[in-house]
Design goal:
alpha+beta; 5-stranded mixed beta barrel; 5 strands
């Protein structure tokens, strides 16, 4: 079996692994395999091909992986319920933590609401969502 087939197979395997894992590790090995294949095409001995493969792979892994991870990192976009934090909720049922009552509407959906610091919030007023605990919005009443 020709070394060109082995280098191509190594490249294909690393690309497939990267496609399945998204860990940004094997892609650098795939590029290193291309370097090894280039060394093969130039007529270099196998040990030189392996050195080229290793140097390219680990140089890219060490230099570019941290940069690529930083670029791909979630930009902190809030999604789903987390996006409600800081928004106003219209209290539809008085919030009383002692009686465990309270409902409110935000974004067209009704939520169970509890107040922060056991303050009572009357129905018909708005409050600010401070955090979410399970399926409950924790709110702070508006200072008038």
């Amino acid at each position: 079996m020709s070394l060109s087939v082995i280098w191509f197979a190594a490249f294909a395997v690393f690309v497939i692994i990267e496609a399945c894992t998204y860990q940004i590790v094997s892609i650098w090995l795939a590029i290193g395999a291309l370097g090894g294949f280039a060394a093969y095409c130039m007529g270099c001995e196998f040990y030189v091909q392996m050195i080229v493969f290793l140097v390219i792979s680990f140089a890219l892994l060490g230099l570019l992986r941290p940069v690529s991870l930083r670029l791909m990192k979630n930009k902190g976009i809030k999604t789903n319920a987390e996006s409600l934090i800081g928004k106003e909720v219209l209290i539809t049922e008085a919030v009383d933590n002692m009686r465990q009552t309270g409902k409110g509407k935000v974004g067209g959906m009704e939520w169970t609401v509890r107040s922060v610091g056991d303050e009572r919030v009357e129905a018909g007023v708005s409050a600010t969502v401070v955090r979410i605990e399970g399926v409950k919005l924790m709110v702070k009443g508006k200072e008038e």
